[in-house]
Amino acid sequence: MVQRSAGTYVAVGGLLLFGTITSLLAKIVYELDGPDRSGVTKLFRKPWMMTTIMFIGMSFCIPIGYIEEFWQRRKQLKENDGAHAPLLNGTMEEEKCTKSRYQFLLLAIPTVFDLIATVLMNIGLLSVTASVYQMMRGAEMLFAALFAVLFLHRHLNKYHLLGILCCVIGIALVGMSSLLGGEGSAQVEVSPSKMLLGMGLIVASQAVQAAQITFEDYFMADLAIEPLQIVGWEGIFGTFFMVAILLPIVSVTPGEDGSGFHENTLETLHMIFNSGPLLAVIIVDMVALLMYNFSGMCVTGGLGAVFRTVLETMRTLFVWLVDLLLFYTPLGLGKLGESWTAWSFMQAAGFLVLVTGTLVYGKGDKMEAKAEGLLGEGEERLFAPVATADPGQAQPAAVPGAHRRSSVGTAPIAMRATPGSLKSTMNMMSFSSSYRARSVPGHGHARDASLDA
Description:
By secondary structure, the protein is an all-alpha fold.
């Protein structure tokens, strides 16, 4: 049994706190206002800039990732007392060689998937509440399962199918409650058509993220790069793509500013630096994103991916509860949060069905893993945290399945438990569906890399 340290439980609190903050601020920032260049005060409805800010926040993981790698290597040297220093040094050099320029450049491809998905989500969030946004993202499981069957030749069992059915019903209930309730923003009246479009964009974004999962599992399962470094490099690539390409393009596209299809970048920057609340929210959002990434890695390593699933579900619930609190108390300043409508009971029912679907699908994963002989006593081989030489301290790449690889201290990118998913786009379906690509055509051998949607 892996012992728990106080730091692990601090990480649990950090995951819930910072995860809830990032989800709430993603919507709150759209409800704040600032002066444009003509002096007119307007709402900050800038999804493209918020996508850029997300990638900037991700890039801050780079130094933490390299510091973490340095301490892990130093710890290995101390544990060996220098007895095998030449061998260790040779191993280190060999590992450094594996982190070639090609591998880091390869991260630009999943970054493109991530960028598209995040832009779609941020535009969709303009027209729905934070709780609906968070729950609708459960659709990722549907598309990930579909792509796993089509491209990775995975077979779903009855628990998987039942979990998918629950997911469809839950998303339908949440979406219907939002349409009937008619609330998409505390500051702007959102028409049913725009609300439906927003939910459609969020669902479409989950299809893109599922495609990213499938791509990573097929092509990138053997990258020996620390999870936080992967998040950081994707942040750097994403920031470059946004600043050098996309922001200039959307600045000249036709349309109304703030609609999601046109965005004046110079005006956006003017609003940010001339509005104290806006600037403060954006800075807090970036810091919270960094802390969420780090807390998520520690929780997955110290307590396991299944426990992380429970926490992500709780995070979704907390987002809704805090949003209600903001609406009905002075904390929301009379312009933040969401109300409890006559149809909120339907949304609550949809949420419960979504949670049920997550648990049932997870049961299907366990049954499948057991049938394949991947589970040992207590299911620790796949679903438990990684044991380390220092009990209670998580490995950098402490993710389900990572300890079944030969690379010490590294993990494949093809897991939603790590790389790209250790950021604010995490949803309650994450970690619930461990896809194992078996005998993937073109790879020449069976692979058991976990691919958590």
